[in-house]
Structure formats: C-alpha cells, structure tokens
Amino acid sequence: MAEKVALTGNDAAATAFKQVNPDVAAVYPITPQTELMQLFAGFVADGLVDTELVAVESEHSAMSAAVGASAAGARVFTATSSQGLALMWEIVYIAASLRLPIVMATVNRALSGPINIHCDHSDSMGARDSGWIQIFSENAQEVYDNIFQAFRIAEDHNVLVPVMVTLDGFILSHTMETLELLPDDVVKEFVGEFEPATNLLEVKNPVKIGPLHLTDFYFETKRAQVEAMERARGAILDVADEWEKLSGRKYGYFDEYRLDDADVAVVVLGSAAGTAKDACDQMRDEGVKAGVLKLRVFRPFPGKEITTALRHLKAVGVMDRSCSFGLEGGPLFNEIRAAAYDTDLKLTGQIYGLGGRDVTIDHIKSIYAELGKVAESGRIDPLTWFVGVRD
Amino acid sequence: MAIPADTKWKDMPLGGMVPEPGTSEEYQTGTWRTFRPVLDTDKCISCLTCWILCPDSAIIVEDSKVTGINYKHCKGCGICARACPDKVKAITMKLESEFND
User: Fold this and answer.
1) Cβ within 8 Å, pair B20-A210
2) Least buried of A32, A177, A180, B5, by fewest C-beta within 10 Å?
3) Residues in chain B with pLDDT values less than 50
4) Is the Cβ–Cβ distance between A336 and A318 less than 8 Å?
C-alpha cells in the first residue's frame, strides 16, 4: 500500500534514490542541491542502501566519476544545481555521447552572475543541447515519480540516453509537501535489475570507450545519438503507462489543465504550473475560458503534440524562466513558436521569475488578460514581455 | 579489425566505442608528421633511450639493436632526436617535403 508522508522536494528525491538503491553515487555539494545528497549520504551511513558513495572534489569530477562508473557497468546517479551543472559541462555532453544511462537530479537555480541561489531554469536550459533527456517536475510527488521513470527510460537498451530530472530550487527542494510513497518491493520491481550495455571491466571482451572520432566517424556517432533521443519518445510514454498502473498517477509529455474548451492558455514548466492552475481557476470564475499546458518533457521536445493540444486556442502565452540573450523571448517560447510555424496559432512569450523572483496568481492573471486582447483583436503586440520586473 | 571507414551511422558501435582491443596498430598516424626522424644506423649505439621515450612505440628494435623507425605510426615529435646522446646524434629530423615517398 502507498504511504502518505510529508517531505521536502530534496527529501522526496533522496527517498526515491534510496528505493532505487543504485550502485554508485557521485557527490559534491551545491546550494540548493546539497541537502539532497546529504540525506542520501545518511541512508548510506545507516546501511539502508548498498550504494558506493564517491565524494569528489568538484562537479566536473562528479560527472567524470559518474561516467567512469557507468561505463564500468554500474547503475549511477548524481545531483547538482546551477554553477555545479555549469562546471560539469564538458562531461555532461560526454556522458550523453557515450550513451551512458546516468540519472541526475538538477535542482534548478539561476546561473551567475549576478550570483544568486534561487530558482530559475537558466541552468537546465543551458544544457538543452547536451543530449540529455530533460524531465521537469511541478511538485514533490512528481519529483519522486519522475526519478523511477528516469532510470527505466535511460536504461532501455533502445534508448541509452542519460536523464535529468529537475526540481525548482527552494520552491520545491526546501518546501515540505505531502506525497505518496510506494513500497520498496513495488518500485524495486518496477525499476528492475540493471543490465548494462557497456562494461569496461569485462576482461574477456575488452573495449575502448571514448576514442577519438575525427572527420571519419564523429558525424555517424552523432547521427546515431540523434536517433537514440528520437527512440526515447516512445519509451517515455511506455514507462509512464506502466507507472500509472502502479501508482494511479498519469504522466505524458505534458499535462493539460482545463484546456479542452479554453480560449486562452499559458504553457509553463515546473513549480509555477501550480500557480498557473490557481490563476486559471480564478479566470474561469470570472467567466474567462482559461487553460494551462504544463510541459513535463522538454527533451526530447514534443513540438507536434504541443501544437496539436493548443491548436483550438485563440491566444497562448508561453512562460519562460530563463532568457536567451539577443533572441526575443525565452527558449520554450521560441521552440513552441518554431513547432507552430505551419499553424495559425497566436503565440506570445513571457519571461518571469528570474533569480527566484516570485511569480504570483496576479502575474499570471495579467498574462491571461493580455491574451484576451490578442484573442479579441487577432493582433499580437507586443510579441514578448517581462512579468514581475520593476519597470 | 578496426571499424570500416564506410560504416553507416546505423551500424556504428554504441557511443562510438571501439569494440575490440589493439586497433590503434591499424590506425595510420604517420601522415600527421611534419618532420621525419632519419636514423643513421652506423652512428647508433643502440642505447635504447629513444625506444624508452618514444610516445608512439615507433622505434623498431630487433635483437636489442635499433634497426629503424615505424613511419606508419611515428608522428614526428622529435623526442628521439633530442634524447639521442650528444656524442652519438644518430637521429636527424628532416622536413617531410624533402622526401618523395
């Protein structure tokens, strides 16, 4: 039977990792992720897991240790935030190109500078072309559920792509919520025994992992990596179906909230989806047909599916918690706009919440109000704007 | 056997790994060379200093004697010529453009 508990997002993640009981964890502290690995280290010290905990000297080393252990045939996870992810950078790409099914919790925090410890998505968005699957979470329950699914997706031999599960720094990582835990034996069976596809320690069948590819082979290897990410699309849905049978909780590429009969809607990633749903409900009470599309899977990007889900709307606001300097609007807005190129969809973009700036129900209601004007006039002006900045 | 040069992307080994050992033997790195070490076997005393230091294991030794240089793998770094004792200097670095082969 499922057990109802109160945990922070970090604790929910650490608990999920405890139940998976991976072979190796590479650990380096960074706010706001630190507590996650500290809690997991407690599980190791208490003998609740068999995991080899490797305390390294930087995040660059954390991802390097994860790559080495994974290439040697171990089930591996790590966790990081912001500058930590930035320091990991080159190895993050290498993990993906070597097709190592590492799982990483990314506790989203704004990248410096100015130095800041609070939530935005600039860290994850910077890694969007690294070749990792990226799954966003709205609350502690989703963090917990996404971690089990991440191992299954990454380790599928038709996929073999590392997975990043994100949770919003402090908003989720340090806030206590109620969630349901599944029993150890149930999730253990769901995750299953790890069957490595690469084993650097197999002396009878020696292989070389990470060799030089020049003009002769690099292109073919990257092309194969593109295909692996494409195959992840099916695996993500199959694993979600299985998880639903166990937990009763439904997952997909995204979640549609009051979208069916909506005229206007916002698209949002992460914890702000909860605020958006409250704003949506209030708009409905005021007679506006509002909706929310909460995106869960950012990589692989479900562009066609998003466009199909939005096509009946009169106006859409795509909310980004990061910016791309020199490009109008954030990455999510631009990707959805590209996916909607062949449609008549009226799309606008909003940048909000940088560096942990609070996003309120009123902020999102103000977006709906602007979308109402677009819906009425059919004119988009402005195309993008900032929400919650002093101007 | 190394991965064939015409391998299609669908047939590439997982993550671009080399699925068997010792394949660097078949990989020609000698074409990268700008300077070629030329050995004068009359001067060479077979002290084997170059053999110890060569990063590409390209010094050919037979019966404890240095007999030549493996130009298929030598990248022309010149360590052998520098390491050759001053009184011997049996290896000279020459520009590849001086050769017709």
Assistant:
1) no
2) B5
3) none
4) yes
Classify strands A297-299 and A133-136 as parallel, antiparallel or unpaired: antiparallel
Q: Give A101's contacts in chain B (Cβ within 8 Å).
A: none
Q: What's the CATH fold of domain A254-387?
A: Rossmann fold (3.40.50)
| Domain A254-387 in the same topology as domain A3-247 | yes
Residues A220-247: tens digit of each pLDDT? 999 999 999 999 999 999 999 999 999 9
Q: A150 forms bridges with which residues in the sheet?
A: none
CATH hierarchy code of domain A3-247 = 3.40.50.970
Contact A100 B15 (CB under 8 A): yes
State the distance between the two ends of chain B, measured CA to CA, in whole angstroms: 27
pLDDT at B1: 56
Domain ranges across chain A? 3-247, 254-387
Residues recorded for chain A: 391
**Cβ atoms A198, A168 nearer than 8 A:** no
Q: Which of A200, A203, A217, A218 to mutate to test the interface with B (most CBs of B within 10 A)?
A: A217
Render the burial of A18-37: b for 16+ CB within 10 Å, e for the rest. Answer: bbbbbbbbbbbbbbbbbbbb
Buried b (16+ CB within 10 A) or exposed e, B55-91: ebebbeeeeeebeebebebbbbbebbbeebeeeeebb
Question: Alpha-carbon distance A381 to A373, whole Å?
Answer: 10
Per the listing, tokens 């930035």 go with A86
Q: Specify the CATH class of B32-98 in words.
A: alpha beta
Complex-level ipTM: 0.89
Give the residue extent of every domain in chain B.
Answer: 32-98
N-term to C-term CA, chain A: 52
Q: Closest Cα of chain A to B16: distance in Å?
A: 6
Q: What's the confidence (pLDDT) of residue A381?
A: 95
Strands A3-8 and A176-181 turn out to be: antiparallel
- Which pLDDT tens digit goes with each residue over A325-377? 999 999 999 999 999 999 999 999 999 999 999 999 999 999 999 999 999 99
Q: Do A220 and B19 touch (CB under 8 A)?
A: no
CA A292/CA B18 separation, integer angstroms:
48
Interchain contact B7–A (C-beta under 8 A): yes
How much of chain A exceeds pLDDT 90, in percent? 97
Q: Is there a contact between A221 and B20 if contact means CB atoms under 8 Å apart?
A: no
